[in-house]
Every structure is written in structure tokens, then in C-alpha cells.
Amino acid sequence: MLMHPELMLALANDRHRELIAEADRERVLTAARAVRKARQARKAPVVRRQRTGTLASCEPSAAVPAR
After folding, report:
1. Cα(34)–Cα(28) distance, rounded to whole angstroms?
2. I need a surface site. Which of 1, 8, 27, 31 has the fewest CB within 10 A?
3. 1 near 8, Cβ under 8 Å?
4. Distance between CA atoms of residues 54 and 26, nearest Å
5. CA–CA separation, 12 vs 15, rounded Å?
6. Looking at residue 38, what DSSP letter applies?
């Protein structure tokens, strides 16, 4: 194995590049997942028609203008 030190150096450099590329892919995927999760959180439905008591009325609650 030690007869070809250039070959060993080339193999070590290739492995190093592979590890860096793998770390970059993981970082990009993590960032993409975080962005997707943030978008989904913004699109979450807002609770608007809440019941006012223990018995719900037949009609949905709506704001009534003052007279």
C-alpha cells in the first residue's frame, strides 16, 4: 500500500470531498425542511367560529354592526 503514496493521497482527498458533499446535502435538506415547515405553519387555519357557551347555536357566529 505504501508503494503508491500519490494513490493514497488521491483516495483520501476523494473521501474528504465526499464527506463535505454529504454534509452540504444534509444542510440544504435541513434548511428546505425548515422553510416548508414555516410555510405550513403560516397556512394553518385560523379558528374563527368558536362556540360561545356549552350549547352551540345553529348559525355560525358573526360580527353584527352596532346600531
Report:
1. 10
2. 1
3. yes
4. 49
5. 5
6. H
Q: Is the pTM of this model over 0.90?
A: no
Instruction: Look at the block and give the residue holding cell 422553510.
Output: 35
CA distance 67 to 65: 6
3-state SS, residue 16: helix
The DSSP code for 44 is: S
Contact 1, 12 (CB under 8 A): no
How far is 29 from 21, CA to CA, in rounded Å? 12
Q: Mean pLDDT of residues grouped by 10 in the chain (67 residues)?
A: 82 96 97 92 66 59 63
